[in-house]
């Protein structure tokens, strides 16, 4: 049977652990001493844990801002690149490039930009006489979360640009020509012709970045470790800290299950799409 | 006249976009070849200007970057080949064989693509410890190989289905075994798809952090991502070393990007079902 080797690997290293996490989440366990059954009390505790609720809030902020920013930027760049520019390929490569580097490297690149003393951002603000805005971007609880989201946007706008670009290529030129002949200006053309035709790729982009934003971990771990004062904490990172720094394996597993449930809920349209693609 | 000003704004927009997307990496590259004493005054400040490769020497020799680099290769190469081999076999099965619950099992596999890694960390830690694979190359390679499967199976199955069934039927009539058909016909036909996948998986594993943080505890076997985290002390970042280290870590993806961008983009577009 051709599928057996893959299924075996998959069952042992993906499927079994996923199920097992549900089981562990019903226990109190520090990783060494025997597990103690608690029932659902980890979950009840979680729903009243201000640190979890804070991480949840920040994750939602991530989802909304990150999805809007990467989709908006990707769309703008992709649409404007259709204007017959000799450097279109170059711009695409430049914007796409951060997608192939690690979040760790990207996080370090941006931590350097945000550095209060040697960073280019504060130097630039001082240069344009806005010194009052210069600050330790990652050290200030008011700005840390948003600074990381900007870094993430820099890394992932290339994704939406590529997909929307491919979507634009598949629009038959006759349609836009016809609209132009009917006297539509550029704005009307975009709003009434191009954008409605772009809805399928836009859906893909929004769903994919939405799901990714819920799982964001690497870049937060690299740049701030959730700090200062939990101001940039997100669920995936909170789970890691509780489980492996504070050795609360049971509680951490409950956080993982919550994250899993949130991701599954957000993925329903995606899963439907997959199932539909199958039956075709 | 109106059109011309529009054009100018368009160019201006793309100049700004390019600058914002390039400056971060350029800054890092410039800082990596200058001494810390000069970075303190800003990497954009070019007087005085001393260019040196000392930072690279230091991180490679004294900060373990050479070892981390080697570890990244040792982990990433098998982790990119193994899952694609198993996935191509499975995809062949899902595309052409008939067995019970085929579609259900396939969908189940695919659905696992969205599971957050956090969902498997604790049991996997236990399992790897039990198997004696904790803190070993083979452990992390097995984990990456398994997690690479769903995407690879999904992509390859969709590719295999597009191969005309007459070809396979003809081969069967000629008396070819299923494995021969897979090995001699299907694999050679799917060279481009396999290459796309391999590149994708390579970059994914090369850049991966979370599994490595949890399953690899000693510096002797940690890859570049964890190495960079080790290098980044929280309070007094040594930007000259950090920038050199980061550049070493992104050389590999950069080369792949420059040489094989087309395959990479193809992989992304195929992944979303285009």
Structure explained in plain terms:
Helices cover 71% and strands 1% of the residues of chain A. Chain A is mainly α and 280 residues long. Chain A has a single domain (38-279), classed as MetI-like (MetI-like fold, Orthogonal Bundle), CATH 1.10.3720.10. A two-stranded antiparallel sheet of chain A has the order 1-2. In chain A, helix 5 (103-114) crosses helix 7 (144-169) and helix 10 packs antiparallel against helix 13 (249-279). Chain A is globular. Chain A starts with a helix and ends with a helix. The model of chain A has no long low-confidence stretch (mean pLDDT 90). Chain B is mostly helical and 274 residues long. Chain B folds into two domains: 2-52, no CATH class; 57-271, MetI-like fold (Orthogonal Bundle), CATH 1.10.3720. Chain B is 75% helix and 0% strand. Chain B is built from 13 helices and no strands. In chain B, helix 5 (102-111) crosses helix 7 (137-161) and helix 10 packs antiparallel against helix 13. Classes of the chains: A mainly alpha (280), B mainly alpha (274). Chains A and B meet through helix 1, helix 4, helix 5, helix 7 and helix 10 of A and helix 1, helix 4, helix 5, helix 6 and helix 7 of B. Chain B: The chain crosses the membrane at residues 12-33, 68-92, 104-125, 137-160, 181-206, 241-260. Chain B: It is found in: Cell membrane. Chain B: One of its GO terms (cellular component) is plasma membrane.
Task: Write a compact overview of the structure shown.
The complex is a heterodimer of chains A (280) and B (274). Chain A is 71% helix and 1% strand.
Specify the helix fraction band of chain A. Answer: over 70%
Number of helices of chain B: 13
CATH architecture classification name of chain A: Orthogonal Bundle
Shape of chain B: globular
CATH class of chain A: Mainly Alpha
CATH class of the largest domain in chain B: Mainly Alpha
By secondary-structure content and strand pairing, the structural class of chain B works out as: mainly alpha
How many structural domains in the coordinates of chain B? 2
Q: How would the global form of chain A be characterised? A: globular
Order of helices and strands of chain A: HEEHHHHHHHHHHHH
